[in-house]
Amino acid sequence: MEETIWFYGICRFTGLMSMGRWLIRKAGSRVIILNYHRASGRNLRSHLLYYKRHYRIMHLEGALKELFMPDKYQEKRQDKRTILVLTFDDGFKDNYTNAFALAKELQVPFTVFLIPGYIGSRRRFWWLEGDHLVNHAQVQEILFEKRTYNLKLLADRTELSQAIYRRLHNARTVSDREAFLNDLRTALAVSPEYIKDNAGALTWEEIYEMQESGWVSFGAHTMHHPVLAELTETLELEDEINQSRLILQQKLGKPIDIFAYPLGKMKHIGEEAVKTVEKAGYSWAVTTEPGINTPKSHPHLLRRIVINAESNWVVPAAFTAGIGLIFLPFFAYGKALLSKGVWFYSFLITSNKQLMEGTKSSERC
Ligand SMILES: [Zn+2]
Fold it and tell me: 2-121+198-329: what fold?
């Protein structure tokens, strides 16, 4: 943490961040879309204050209209700052308790991508189930995928949790995923009181309240959050993409024109899903491939910068100025060298521990 502040602090005090922001502004019409998931921790306020100072914060739909249809939507304005958009994926409860409270106080709009199949269901998001079930297992060992795990050992618990995550991630259908989860709960003898999730996802009441405030808009994020590239049935792929839009439109009484791909990297999406999203009538779709959007960006493969709400504010500051994005490949390369014992990159990686962890956790949803 301290090292992260130090590293990006240098970028700030040497003027690199200001220069990065200036270069992006001078490059022409650009939209920076940030991707959060959770809104917990104490740092989100400082992120928002920084964005308010340096960027023109807009709702996603308005920003994209201005980017792609400038003749129709771009007004002559004094504010020449680059447009920045905040998005939150999945609809975690803290988007209401933390982000919404801050949005009202600081007058900052944001967009939440919802998964209707989870809203009000009291089901835990599937990518959180591995850790949760292993932590509440009442058996001492389990045979899973031809390996016996001793649940008294921390290393075995961690590996089992990862194996469960992989199994859920690679599910070929949503019903297969849910059937596997049910069998696993039985095999691990998890008590019924730990099966339902009382605090995970937003409720419709909270969503309505956010919508009525005018500070929060919504987009679709499939019905049940499958990894789209893993689905084998075309019909199910179409259903996940179409149904989420229809239900949200019906419940919210507004057109839903933007889609966010679950997990969001190209390897999770697949060509078929992009075609299906276009065919379904969405005007735009966002990925988690890093980058800044231009009028030439593919409207159904828009880029976003993943930010961890718990990061110190200098991390999003560096990323929105383009600095973090430039350094990202070096850090990935450095990680490979680190395994070969190269000390200099070892230092850089330590400096960006939070960045690397943020990327890793975001890949889970
Ligand atoms: Zn997601």
Answer: TIM Barrel (3.20.20)
